[in-house]
Amino acid sequence: MYVALLMLPSAARGLSTPPPPPPLTQPGLYPPIAKADPLLWWQETSGAIVVAGAASGIGEQIARLYGKKGKVYAVSRSIEPTMFEDNPNIITSRVDVTDDDSVAALVSQIKEDGETVSALFNCAVLLNGEKGPERNIKGIDKAFFMDSFAINAYGPINTTRQLLPLLAKGGAVVNLSARVGSIADDEMGGWWSYRSSKTALNHLTKLSHIETNRRGHKITFLSVHPGTTYTPMSSPFTQRRYEAGDESLHSAEFTATAIAELVAGAGEDHSGGFFDWSGQSLPF
């Protein structure tokens, strides 16, 4: 009897019928970013630049770009203290972005220097290893999978959450992502750990925007696909293209400048979005 009663329509049971839930909608893509002069933007925010993953590749070139005009904290767990010795504007420090205490020490150093932060660039990444990237599901290794999420997802949100109190009004957090992290754009599969950790990173970028915007903090959060760039990390996959003179392959210097120009041109309507190096919005 009880079961039969539950199966009756709401009106027959003397209950009001609740309204149907609103239909699910697919949010539209973000407007494109018109690039601007990164050094002019930096003058307006007047804080230091922090680059995590600055030991090589894109992170190194971002540090060198901003180091031409002001203070940069270039950090990595493997960075050599003498790497930027030719530029006194660039301060090097060994920081493991997956370690809370290590990042806290960086925050303390910046505070002791009396600095605020104009932009945080999260460039530390794990793609290659003895167990990855994986070609199929059988190749998934737990340790490599967990390390990928620790470096590619937790590392950026760890630096963000700890440096957030130091970020200047109008500042930015840039998470170096990858187009392969797009669920909507994935038609090939593979690279399980790398893809899924970058998907997580893109969502963390969105979550960071939602929370800080709710609190009234004027900070821009961007996930950026750098395009295929020739770096020590990518060389196992790009070496032949590089040797063949493939003009579609970016140099690290080109990509660093492109990303810095995106930061300068981004506005409130771009925060939380996923973009490629040219400023075009990408689907999550």
What do you see in this structure?
- InterPro entries: Fungal_SecMetab_SDRs, NAD(P)-bd_dom_sf, SDR_fam.
- GO terms for molecular function: oxidoreductase activity.
- The chain is built from 8 helices and 9 strands.
- It is of the alpha/beta class.
- Strands 3-2-1-4-5-6-9 form a 7-stranded parallel sheet, sandwiched between helices. Strands 7-8 form a two-stranded parallel sheet.
- Residues 1-16 have low confidence and may be disordered.
How do the strands and helices of this protein lay out in sequence?
Elements: H1 2-7, H2 38-45, E1 48-52, H3 57-67, E2 72-76, E3 90-94, H4 100-112, E4 117-122, H5 142-163, E5 167-176, H6 192-214, E6 220-225, E7 229-230, H7 235-243, E8 250-251, H8 252-265, E9 273-276
Parallel strand pairs: 1-2, 1-4, 2-3, 4-5, 5-6, 6-9, 7-8
Could you give a short description of this structure?
This protein is an alpha/beta fold. The protein has helices spanning 2-7, 38-45, 57-67, 100-112, 142-163, 192-214, 235-243, 252-265, and strands at residues 48-52, 72-76, 90-94, 117-122, 167-176, 220-225, 229-230, 250-251, 273-276. It has one domain (33-276): NAD(P)-binding Rossmann-like Domain (Rossmann fold, 3-Layer(aba) Sandwich).
Alpha-carbon distance between the two ends: 48 Å
> Beta-strand level of the residues, as a percent range?
15-25%
Percent helix range: 25-40%
- How many beta strands in the DSSP annotation? 9
Average per-residue pLDDT, rounded, comes to 89
Shape: globular
Provide a count of the helices. Answer: 8
Please state how the strands of the largest beta sheet are arranged side by side.
Answer: 3-2-1-4-5-6-9
What would CATH call the architecture? 3-Layer(aba) Sandwich
Q: Low-confidence stretches at least 5 residues in length (pLDDT < 50)?
A: 1-16
Mind telling me the CATH superfamily name? NAD(P)-binding Rossmann-like Domain
Which H/E pattern describes the elements? HHEHEEHEHEHEEHEHE
Here the CATH topology equals: Rossmann fold
Q: Supply the CATH class.
A: Alpha Beta
Estimate nothing, just give the exact number of structural domains.
1
What structural class do you assign from the helix and strand content? alpha/beta
Question: Radius of gyration in whole Å, from Cα?
Answer: 22 Å
GO molecular function: oxidoreductase activity
